Amino acid sequence: MPAHSAQTAAAPAKAKTAQQERMVTCNQDAKGKTGDERKAFMSSCLKGETSASGNALSASQQRMKNCNADATAKALKGDQRKAFMSTCLKAK
């Protein structure tokens, strides 16, 4: 009987998902941080609020985040949400 371990050793490694890649990058950037500081950094980094390099969201990204939160709070869906987002994102 052939050993199955030879077959599994030859199997290619699975590609990482985008979230797994983000976890690796955020984890590397969090080196040197401990406790609550690390926890806060990892949370915001994994959510995409802070880029892996530690930069804050751009103005347009922040506007998108705020408009999206407002639309969700107002429970807008479909065409109403589209119209609201369009108006909100154009506002300066």
Q: What is the SS-derived class?
A: mainly alpha
Percent helix range: 55-70%
Q: Could you tell me the strand content as a percent range?
A: under 5%
Detail the poorly predicted runs: none
Mean of residue pLDDT values? 78
Strand count, sense and barrel status of the largest sheet are: none
Report the total helices: 5
Helix-strand string? HHHHH
Shape: elongated
Radius of gyration: 21 Å
What is the number of beta strands? 0
Q: State the end-to-end distance.
A: 71 Å
Protein architecture, described:
This protein is mainly alpha-helical. Helices cover 64% and strands 0% of the residues. The longest helix has 15 residues, at 59-73.
SSE diagram, text form:
Layout: H1 5-10, H2 18-29, H3 35-47, H4 59-73, H5 78-90
Helix pairs in contact: 2-3, 4-5
Could you write a compact summary of the structure shown?
The chain is built from 5 helices and no strands. By secondary structure, it is mainly α. The longest helix has 15 residues, at 59-73.
Write out key terms for the chains shown:
about 90 residues, elongated, about 65% helix, mainly alpha
